């Protein structure tokens, strides 16, 4: 590990990721999607949403916005890269009922409104509204602890060391 990697590692210690949507946290392995549940994209968790708005879980920058408005990628100020994906297989809805409030390259602050989504329309179309939060650069951290007692936007969802 080079000097830059060691410095970056120290900067990333003890970072908190807050709930992006109100609801019940569920382990990845319980998701009905192999890509997420097998951890192929990284570590994280799902949330069974009680609300239809996704908020920024940390300060950072938007690095990707799905054309279908159901997902986005962001990077925290400390270098944690994440995907927030609303629903399972909701890409098939082609953005209908989804509204994106940010664009790629935009700086964000924790608690900022990012996406609204149609929970009832998702369910009526036969999809699950489970919102997935994945740390895509999980391998750069010592541990990613999901705190399953999170429920509200102001609750911590993950502790990253």
Automatic annotation (TrEMBL):
* Residue ranges of domain PTS EIIA type-1 in the record: 33-137
Does Kinase show up as a keyword for this record?
Answer: yes
Keywords linked to the UniProt accession: Kinase, Phosphotransferase system, Sugar transport, Transferase, Transport
Give the signal peptide as a residue range, or say none if absent: none
**TM ranges:** none
Q: Where in the cell is it found?
A: Cytoplasm
Where is it mostly found? cytoplasm
State what protein this is by name: PTS glucose transporter subunit IIA
